[in-house]
Write a structure and sequence with these properties.
about 325 residues; globular; homodimer; eleven-stranded mixed beta sheet; 12 helices
Chain lengths: ~325, ~325
């Protein structure tokens, strides 16, 4: 098994990516190797500088780099030899079983759509986030930013996809699906959530528990939270800011430590033909490590194949 | 000046409302009296039971009560002598300068629209919430639940109304208006936020600072946060749940204590011809007290008249 990492992606690349790769390599099981994609000489120098054991690390050269601020579609067409398109090329050919990057999120998203493409039947792939639960364990929230405006059938598919993610990657049996809303009653909400509620209610395969509210993000009501990418993005960033506020007020607490983006590492793009994880631009080595480990965990679960199977039905 | 309180509204009424009224009466300045609306005998008994000094308290009898779970429009037409419609009657006639209730939110909202009505020119009145700022002081967020689906011109008006609220009630000079979005760049967001951005950008009277994100709710970027009622509701409930989680983990912190709904007390309906504040169903005496004090503060500022003036332009 080979997991690829964009060594040039992120505000602090290549230092944080190479250091993070070193940390991840120590934790990856025997037989799994890590492919660093980027400018070979730079990566090699950094591996030496940080004195990293490279027995599990390979380098795949990519001549160019897509900057954090570049326009995704333009950059992808003008720089076919940048680390992101090269990574997708390897993933598409099956030479690696996962690809992750803390680089240009737009380019990662557009790149996925143009190279490995959406799974047939999936209207809109989305990005899944993780929320730590007060009662222990984690919940899944989807979408957290890929699709600002959604249609009801798209939310319905998010429920199917995120349920498979919760089941196969987090081992949650029959995950309880909650629809994020402004009240619990069936008739509450926007035109979108009202319509999505009706679709979800009719599903026989989903474990739909109804509407949940902002106060339920961290409690044990639902394992899977469904919302449009606008709402999910606001929720996730607000949760991260809670961690930062606690930190700056010097409040230490093991539960709230899990709100740290570093401990999660990244968020997968789900609904595409491959295992793709995107990370925060500001990713530290610890965050990069956890992004790579998540990518490996998802690869091991064969999640995208399970989603594909589901949408064949 | 007379401030009215629905003595029958809320999960713990009339105990919490009467006790809260007693606490509020102690803090209201000379010359301001509190009008308790509800079943006179019950209120009188509770005033005695809790040994409350009623020198500043009047009772206005209302025969009926609208329950927390009743259908707003139906209940209002079937129970014209309930405390909520009676309260609106007093407000409309100018016999009281403010009316607040922790009772049926829907009935309070519909009641406002049918009795005192929207200010001419205001497309949709909304509910304004308060967020404590890390740097001290408070910010305003609107809408927090009255309008799940919004049009761009409605968001624009929220910016105008909430700015007047921040200015006149919280004394914030030229309040900075931020549009809640999933990214900072102008072109980011939903069709709604993209269109609202263009309207806000063109305004000469607003101090529009652009898009803000979920991480900016509590920081010092914006004094006024504009969003649809769906998003605002999720944000507010999530913030409240943070307080509850810290409480249950026994973390005490003066900043986070302000996340307690009790210390805020209530949220005004803005854009209607009168001063209306609605409270949480679960309101404690402390919450009721703060709701009444907020109602008095708003009455003193003459906010709804200033909004009316603005929309005459």
């Amino acid at each position: 098994v080979k997991i690829a990492l964009d060594a040039m992606g992120g505000d602090f690349a290549p230092d944080s990516t190479v250091q993070g790769a070193g940390l991840a390599a120590e934790e990856l099981p025997e037989g799994v190797s890590l492919v660093l994609i980027g400018q070979e000489k730079i990566i090699r120098d950094k591996l030496n500088e940080y004195n990293i054991d490279n027995s599990k690390i390979e380098i795949f050269h990519a001549d160019e780099v897509i900057g954090m601020g570049e326009h995704p579609t333009k950059a992808l067409s003008q720089k076919p030899n940048a680390s992101i398109p090269i990574g997708y090329g390897l993933l598409k050919k099956g030479l690696v079983q996962g690809f992750s990057s803390a680089g240009n999120t737009g380019a990662m998203h557009v790149g996925a759509m143009f190279s490995i493409k959406s799974i047939e039947g999936v209207i809109r792939p989305g990005i899944a986030g993780i929320v730590p639960k007060e009662s222990g364990g984690f919940g899944v929230i989807m979408d957290v930013g890929a699709n600002a405006d959604c249609k009801p059938d798209v939310l319905f598919q998010f429920a199917e996809i995120a349920s498979l993610y919760a089941e196969n990657v987090f081992g949650i049996d029959k995950p309880r699906v909650g629809l994020m809303n402004l009240g619990e009653e069936e008739q509450k909400g926007t035109l979108l959530t009202q319509a999505a509620f009706q679709l979800l209610k009719l599903s026989k395969s989903l474990n739909f528990i109804g509407n949940i509210e902002g106060r339920d993000v961290f409690n044990d009501k639902a394992d899977v939270i469904i919302c449009d990418g606008f709402t999910g993005n606001v929720i996730l960033k607000m949760a991260e800011s809670m961690f930062d506020m606690l930190q700056s007020r010097q409040i230490k607490d093991p539960y709230f430590d899990q709100f740290n983006y570093e401990s999660v590492g990244g968020s997968p793009i789900l609904g595409v033909n491959g295992n793709v994880v995107i990370g925060h631009g500001v990713s530290s080595p610890e965050a990069i490590k956890n992004m790579v480990l998540m990518s490996h965990k998802i690869a091991k679960s064969g999640l995208h194949l399970k989603i594909k199977e589901k949408f064949k039905e």
